[in-house]
């Protein structure tokens, strides 16, 4: 069975396959993305779009980019989808074990340090750009983490390919005395501007509002981009039998087999002999 | 004769004189000559060997994806308490078709079907690896794995090879829970999962497949209609993909069992 950690067994074979034969490196699913975080008077609001791309094709039009690190610490991720999911998952379990062993509720700063140390070890090869936000006993915190392991602590953050579009909205609308509703609408507008102006972002808007001992996750709060207006009303109907079949095989569901007692008796008889 | 030569000598040779080079006559030893000839021969042969083996002449298939080395297509769709998974059965090496009956869709248990596209050698390796893991799971847990858990297992196996990945795109289709709710999952080559409710596509024909599936898919289809829709989608898409085709197989999974049907496709 496999031990934990990364396995580099196939690295040599892949180098020879790809580089020596001049094949292109295959595309991984990326989250082009617009992710945004804003601190307001009582807590933090995180927002993200929901498009995952594989090259120019949309692989998943409605994926979840806001990941749970702990009950009141959440993280939005941009970059390679597998990397953001697995990195946040790994740090989430490390934080849980740490909080169980220390007997204290986890801090946002601990998650930040765990994430930046992990990413720095891989020198940017794990392509995960994260917006980490949460409320712990010291108050609300918001941090941005780059794939190489550098971090910043700011009152409002945008990352991903749509970060410029989102930052334009944030710079215009942010003020340090915002309430919850203002912050929510600001993040919503920022994500929408990313969705509309950036090709790598699209789909619906997800919001996550974290306050002291409370978390509300608004999945798909805005779906105006997903509803196709001019869809054909009567779908295509295929009559039964329109596809010609060469062979047909039906396998019924197999139940578990029960051990029959007769064989045990046979074995006993042999032993006597 | 001598008069003619004297004329040539007198006219040309007076103007054109050979330069006065004070050259020393080199007389190399026989061993030195032998060494020089041997060295020249070595250079020539080394060049020939390099040209033939290290950079062999080949049909220039440059800057093409490794996924197009074998070429295959798989699609899975969800219906009402049923799922269907369909794929082509061509096994080819670049432009040549080697076999017409290669199966890339495998049954994990009564509730889960698993298909892979991409490099054939990795498909076969991972088939054995998952068979081993599932046998161990059945022995340890004394129950059958649910499709969702199996999907997470696949993603974890693929992500452990993040920096030297298997070149496959897996698709997991199954029926989850007591209600037999349809479950679909597709991941990329390093295990980033997506869980759509309608259909998943993978392989060299995935772009055409996305188009036809978006058009023909309806929600809550019964197994018969689901079979028709997924077959038409697959047939349309492999017609537009040079690397897939040459036969196809469709599995429809309901709570009563699996119905497998083989379809005729274009053989080109």
From TrEMBL, chain A:
Subcellular locations according to the entry: Cytoplasm; Nucleus
Keywords in alphabetical order: Coiled coil, Cytoplasm, Hydrolase, Nucleus, Protease, Proteasome, Threonine protease
GO molecular function, one term: threonine-type endopeptidase activity
InterPro entries referenced in this protein's UniProt entry, alphabetically: Ntn_hydrolases_N, Pept_T1A_subB, Proteasome_bsu_CS, Proteasome_sua/b, Proteasome_suB-type
SUPFAM superfamilies tied to this protein: N-terminal nucleophile aminohydrolases (Ntn hydrolases) (SSF56235)
Coiled coil: 243-273
Main location: cytoplasm
Active site annotation, chain numbering: 33 (nucleophile)
GO cellular component: cytoplasm; nucleus; proteasome core complex
Annotated TM spans: none
Chemical reaction(s) catalysed: Cleavage of peptide bonds with very broad specificity
Entry keyword Nucleus: yes
GO biological process: proteolysis involved in protein catabolic process
Keyword Ligase in annotation: no
Gene3D superfamilies in alphabetical order: Glutamine Phosphoribosylpyrophosphate, subunit 1, domain 1 (3.60.20.10)
Record function comment: Component of the proteasome, a multicatalytic proteinase complex which is characterized by its ability to cleave peptides with Arg, Phe, Tyr, Leu, and Glu adjacent to the leaving group at neutral or slightly basic pH. The proteasome has an ATP-dependent proteolytic activity.
Family, as annotated: Belongs to the peptidase T1B family.
Subunit field text: Component of the proteasome complex.
Protein name as it appears in the record: Proteasome subunit beta
Source organism of the structure: Anaeramoeba flamelloides
From TrEMBL, chain B:
Secretion signal span: none
TM spans (from-to): 31-50
Family: Belongs to the peptidase T1B family.
GO cellular component terms listed in the entry, alphabetical order: proteasome complex
Keywords: Cytoplasm, Membrane, Nucleus, Proteasome, Transmembrane, Transmembrane helix
Keyword rRNA processing included in the entry's annotation: no
Assembly, per entry: Component of the proteasome complex.
Protein name per its UniProtKB record: Proteasome subunit beta
Organism per entry: Anaeramoeba flamelloides
Pfam families assigned: Proteasome
Subcellular localization(s) per the UniProt record: Cytoplasm; Nucleus
Gene3D superfamilies noted in UniProt: Glutamine Phosphoribosylpyrophosphate, subunit 1, domain 1 (3.60.20.10)
Known role: Component of the proteasome, a multicatalytic proteinase complex which is characterized by its ability to cleave peptides with Arg, Phe, Tyr, Leu, and Glu adjacent to the leaving group at neutral or slightly basic pH. The proteasome has an ATP-dependent proteolytic activity.
Tagged with keyword RNA-binding: no
């Amino acid at each position: 069975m496999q031990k934990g950690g990364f396995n580099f067994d196939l690295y040599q074979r892949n180098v020879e396959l790809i580089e020596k034969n001049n094949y292109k490196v295959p595309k991984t699913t990326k989250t082009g993305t617009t992710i945004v975080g804003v601190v307001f008077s009582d807590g933090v609001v995180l927002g993200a779009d929901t498009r995952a791309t594989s090259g120019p094709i949309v692989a998943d039009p409605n994926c979840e980019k806001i990941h749970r690190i702990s009950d009141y610490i959440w993280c939005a991720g941009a970059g390679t989808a597998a990397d953001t999911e697995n990195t946040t998952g790994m740090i989430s379990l490390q934080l849980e074990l740490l909080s169980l062993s220390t007997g204290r509720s986890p801090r946002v700063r601990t998650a930040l340090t765990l994430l930046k140390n992990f990413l720095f070890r891989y020198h940017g090869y794990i392509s995960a750009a994260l917006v980490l936000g949460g409320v712990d006993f010291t108050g609300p915190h918001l941090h941005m983490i780059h794939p190489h392991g550098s971090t910043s602590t700011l009152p409002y953050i945008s990352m991903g390919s749509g970060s410029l579009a989102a930052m334009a909205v944030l710079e215009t609308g942010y003020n340090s005395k915002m309430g919850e509703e203002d912050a929510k609408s600001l993040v919503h507008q920022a994500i929408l501007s990313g969705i509309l102006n950036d090709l790598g972002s699209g789909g619906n808007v997800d919001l996550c509002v974290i306050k002291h001992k409370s978390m509300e996750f608004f999945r798909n709060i805005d779906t105006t981009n997903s509803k196709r207006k001019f869809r054909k009303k009567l779908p295509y109907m295929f009559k039964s039998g329109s596809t010609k079949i060469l062979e047909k095989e039906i396998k019924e569901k197999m139940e578990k087999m029960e051990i029959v007692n007769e064989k045990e008796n046979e074995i006993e008889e042999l032993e006597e002999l | 004769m001598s008069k003619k030569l004297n004329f040539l000598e007198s006219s040309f040779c007076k103007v054109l004189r050979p330069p006065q080079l004070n050259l020393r006559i080199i007389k190399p030893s026989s061993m030195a000559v032998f060494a020089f000839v041997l060295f020249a021969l070595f250079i020539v042969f080394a060049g020939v060997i390099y040209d033939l083996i290290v950079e062999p002449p080949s049909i220039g298939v440059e800057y093409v994806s490794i996924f197009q080395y074998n070429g295959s297509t798989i699609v899975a769709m969800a219906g009402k308490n049923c799922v269907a998974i369909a794929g082509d059965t061509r096994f080819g090496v670049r432009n040549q078709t080697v076999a017409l009956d290669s199966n890339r869709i495998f049954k994990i248990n009564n509730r889960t079907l698993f298909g892979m596209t991409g490099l054939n050698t990795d498909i076969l390796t991972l088939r054995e690896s998952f068979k081993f893991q599932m046998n161990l799971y059945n022995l340890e847990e004394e129950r059958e794995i649910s499709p969702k858990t199996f999907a997470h297992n696949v993603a974890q196996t693929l992500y452990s090879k993040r920096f030297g990945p298997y070149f496959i795109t897996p698709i997991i289709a199954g029926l989850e829970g007591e209600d037999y709710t349809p479950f679909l999952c597709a991941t990329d080559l390093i295990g980033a999962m997506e869980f759509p409710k309608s259909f998943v596509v993978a392989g060299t024909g995935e772009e055409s497949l996305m188009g036809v599936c978006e058009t023909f898919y309806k929600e809550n289809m019964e197994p018969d209609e689901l079979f028709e829709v997924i077959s038409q989608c697959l047939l349309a898409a492999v017609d537009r993909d040079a690397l897939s085709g040459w036969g196809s197989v469709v599995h429809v999974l309901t709570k009563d069992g699996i119905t497998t049907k083989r379809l005729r496709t274009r053989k080109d």
